[in-house]
C-alpha cells in the first residue's frame, strides 16, 4: 500500500492520464493514490469551492489536449483526479501542482457620468458602455460559458463562438448569445430593463425560465417591480443613437428625461416648480451633439419653470 505521496511521480501520472498516455500499470498506480487517499478524505473535508475550481481547470486542460475525451471518460477523470488533487491541497502542496489552482480574477470597468467607454473583452468581443454604467468580467473565459455582469446601459458586439455561449447578467435577467450585437439598458434606478437586438439572435431567461428569444429589431421590456414583460417590434436604432452622440427621446416621461440628461452631462438637475400634468407629459425628439445650455433651455420651455444644475456628480 502507498503510505506517502511521491509528488513528482503523482503529477507525472496526472498529466499522462489527462492526455490518455498512461500505461495499464501507470493507471493502476494512479488508482492506488485515489483509493488510498481520495475515498477517505474527499467526502470528509468541506472543499466544494476548491473542488469546483479544480474541475474547471481540469476541463480547460482537457479541452486543449490533442485527444478528445468522451463524456464518460470526462466524468471519470473529473471525479478521480479532482479528488486526488484535493488531497494535495489538504497536505499544503498546491503551490507545486502542475495544474495550479487560482482564484478567478475579475475586472470591473466603469463609465463615469458624462462619458462613454469602450471595452474589449478577453474573447475580442467589444462593449460600449453608456454614461453611469459598469461591466464586470473574468480576466479569461475558461469555463463552458462567457459570463459578464452589467449595470447600466451597453451595446455589445459579441465574437461568435457556439461552443462557449456569451451570457450577460442584469437585474435577475440572463441574456444568452453565441455571437451577435444588441443593446441592454438596465440602470439600477430604472423600473424597467430594455433589451434590443440588432443582429443575430438572443435568448432571455429569468431563474432558469426562458422568457423570450428575440429576432433583429425586436425589444423586450421587463418590469422589475411586477416582473411582467413585453416583446415588441422595435427599431434597435432608436436605442443606439447614444453611440453616435445623439440623445433620442421616444415617449419618455419628464422624470426619465431628467435622468438621461443627468447621466449624459454628469450633472444634477433641479426644477424649481412643476405641475402634475407637466410631470406626466411624455417627450419625443432628438438632440444631436447636444450642449448643456441647449438641453436646459428646451426642458425649461417644456416644463415652464426655471431649471438649475450642479456639476460633477459622482457615479
Protein architecture, described:
With 315 residues, this protein is α+β, with helices and mostly antiparallel strands. It folds into three domains: 7-96; 106-239, Sandwich (Jelly Rolls), CATH 2.60.120; 246-311, Phage tail protein beta-alpha-beta fold (3-Layer(bab) Sandwich). 30% of the residues lie in helices and 33% in strands. Strands 1, 2, 3, 4, 5, 6, 7, 8, 9, 10, 11, 12 and 13 form a 13-stranded mixed β-sheet that branches. The protein has a two-stranded antiparallel ribbon with strand order 14-16. The protein has a two-stranded antiparallel ribbon with strand order 15-17. The N and C termini lie far apart (62 Å). Residues 109-201 form the FecR protein domain. One of its GO terms (molecular function) is sigma factor antagonist activity. This is FecR family protein. Residues 248-310 form the Protein FecR C-terminal domain.
Amino acid at each position: 500500500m502507498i503510505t506517502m505521496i511521491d509528488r513528482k511521480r503523482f503529477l507525472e501520472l496526472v498529466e499522462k492520464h489527462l492526455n490518455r498516455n498512461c500505461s495499464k500499470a501507470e493507471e493502476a498506480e494512479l488508482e492506488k493514490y485515489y483509493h488510498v487517499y481520495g475515498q477517505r478524505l474527499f467526502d470528509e473535508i468541506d472543499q466544494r469551492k476548491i473542488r469546483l475550481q479544480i474541475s474547471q481547470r481540469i476541463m480547460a486542460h482537457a479541452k486543449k489536449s490533442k485527444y478528445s475525451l468522451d463524456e464518460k471518460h470526462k466524468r471519470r477523470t473529473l471525479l478521480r483526479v479532482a479528488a486526488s488533487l484535493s488531497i494535495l491541497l489538504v497536505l499544503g502542496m498546491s503551490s507545486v501542482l502542475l495544474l495550479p489552482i487560482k482564484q478567478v480574477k475579475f475586472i470591473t470597468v466603469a463609465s463615469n457620468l458624462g462619458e462613454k467607454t469602450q471595452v474589449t473583452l478577453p474573447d475580442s468581443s467589444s462593449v460600449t458602455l453608456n454614461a453611469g454604467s459598469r461591466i464586470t468580467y473574468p480576466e479569461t473565459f475558461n469555463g463552458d460559458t462567457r459570463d459578464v455582469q452589467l449595470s447600466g446601459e451597453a451595446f455589445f458586439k459579441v465574437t461568435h463562438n457556439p461552443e462557449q455561449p456569451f451570457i450577460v447578467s442584469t437585474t435577475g435577467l440572463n441574456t444568452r448569445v453565441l455571437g451577435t450585437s444588441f443593446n441592454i439598458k438596465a440602470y439600477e434606478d430604472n423600473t424597467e430593463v430594455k433589451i434590443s437586438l440588432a443582429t443575430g439572435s438572443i435568448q432571455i431567461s429569468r431563474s432558469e425560465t426562458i422568457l423570450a428569444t428575440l429576432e433583429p429589431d425586436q425589444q423586450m421590456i421587463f418590469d422589475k417591480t411586477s416582473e411582467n414583460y413585453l416583446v415588441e417590434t422595435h427599431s434597435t436604432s432608436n436605442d443606439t443613437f447614444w453611440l453616435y452622440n445623439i440623445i433620442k427621446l421616444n415617449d419618455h416621461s419628464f422624470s426619465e428625461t431628467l435622468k438621461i440628461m443627468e447621466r449624459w452631462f454628469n450633472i444634477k438637475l433641479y426644477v424649481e416648480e412643476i405641475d402634475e400634468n407637466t410631470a406626466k407629459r411624455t417627450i419625443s425628439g432628438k438632440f444631436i451633439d447636444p450642449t448643456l445650455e441647449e438641453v436646459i433651455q428646451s426642458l425649461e420651455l417644456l416644463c415652464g419653470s426655471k431649471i438649475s444644475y450642479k456639476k460633477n456628480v459622482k457615479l
